[in-house]
Amino acid sequence: PxxxxxxxxxxxxxxxxxxxxxxxxxxxDLLVAQCDANCCCDPDCSADDFSLFTTCxxxxxxxxxxxxxxxAAVYSLDVxxxxxxxxxxxxxxxxxxxxxxxxxxxxxxxYLKSPEIPTPENFDRLLDKFGGAxxxxxxxxxxxxxxxxxPPDANETYRYEYGVPVQTEDAFLRLPSPVVSSWCSDANPxxxxxxxxxxxxxxxxxxxxxxxxxxxxLFYINSSxxxxxxxxxxxxITVQSIVVQSLNGMRTLLNSSDxxxxxxxxxxxxxxxxxxxxxxxxxxxxxxxIEAAAAFVLGAISKEALSIEQSFEISFTQxxxxxxxxxxxxxxxxxxxxxxxxRPQGYPFPAGFLSNKHSQLTILQSTSTQDCLxxxxxxxxxxxxxxxxxxxxxxxxxxxxxxPLAETLLDVLKGQSFPEYVASFGNSQxxxxxxxVPITQLHISEQMISTTLQxxxxxxVALGIEVKWAKYGSLVNPQARIVNxxxxxxxxxxxxxxxxxxxIIPITSSVVFTDISSPAxxxxxxxxxxxxxxxFDFFYPFV
Length: 543
Description:
The protein has 543 residues and is mainly beta.
């Protein structure tokens, strides 16, 4: 007991290793590779820049304010020096509160992990684990031995975060792109979870095509990717597919992608030159890359060509998940489908959304025969921003029963699985419950009177969908966001036809998009007009 008490006191006296290096934090560093005015912590600023500062916009930079003891970076200006200089100090800051955190030794709290989505299979297990009044982690994760849990590099990031360049064994994964002009620059790194698609122009010479690295497949797959930053675990880039493009643009998919095809000169042409690369990266929910694949488009270059256009693309997919087609990032793009889905049934809380077969909002698709009974099941996706109308004709006879006819028409108008929600953004995820807008369903009845009929029947004849959207975000780059969706079913009352008579009625579906964005208000007021006459030489010597 005595030894245990001494060990506990020793641990209490020793401060834990810092998780965040405050000397590298800078919240006012907004410009990339440029010095921000009065930002004393900006690493892009030089001594000449500091001499022009009037004050430090962020004088103190700290990490977590709830820690009992932590490092603080203090910035100030020595205005008496000639020229003025920046002063940097790293001090120990003590939290006066008695309710503070002594050691951040819960490793799972140091990064964001996607929660497990409840399903009918795992619901009972999750209920047993988290259904009580309290729950905690495994006892082993609460080890108070901070020295063992904080090696010298404990403040380094050992998982990829959004936007962090994907590292390779020699540098980073290249995604060539145009920088200033349309010419390709190989200095553009691929950011983690940042889906990109670029096109650029590459100067070529057929006589030297076998020595131009950017035209070879090896240039894009010869460096292995680091599974996590600054680790020794490597992930090789495999060749997923190879497509060969002829001079006239015809493409052919090769049966085997195991053999590398290197550029070479044949009959005055440079063949097997890389025209396009499509990377696909698979990662875990904790930010670790586990697979990397590349699909190539190879082509031939004629000796008259002085340059070629190359296209590059990269996409990321989390393991054990199916890629969901997006309709924008984040706002909707005009012409792409409106995404839709359902809320899972049987849960006491909103756990997420299940997409329908195509994850899209659909309407009745017109057919050449215009027969409603034959058009059952034919659907067309609702494209964002496009007002649409479609329909068919229904031939009613005296032999038709009312109830089956009404159910069939409702199925023709709404489909077999009409969604309950639509995504407010083009990239809304199923687990983000607040990013889904419920569809409000209304019913309107119309009366149709016929003196030659005997008994009445009410059937749906029209479905009208109104999608209200608004511009969201910056005025420079506004994003389209759906804020309300209303589906209105219009029914009409028919009377039973007498024997031997027929009636044809039209059935219609329509979609209308309405922009409800409020007009932007100017952030300035007009300058007042001063009605005076200036001297004739007021602007001399300028005109």
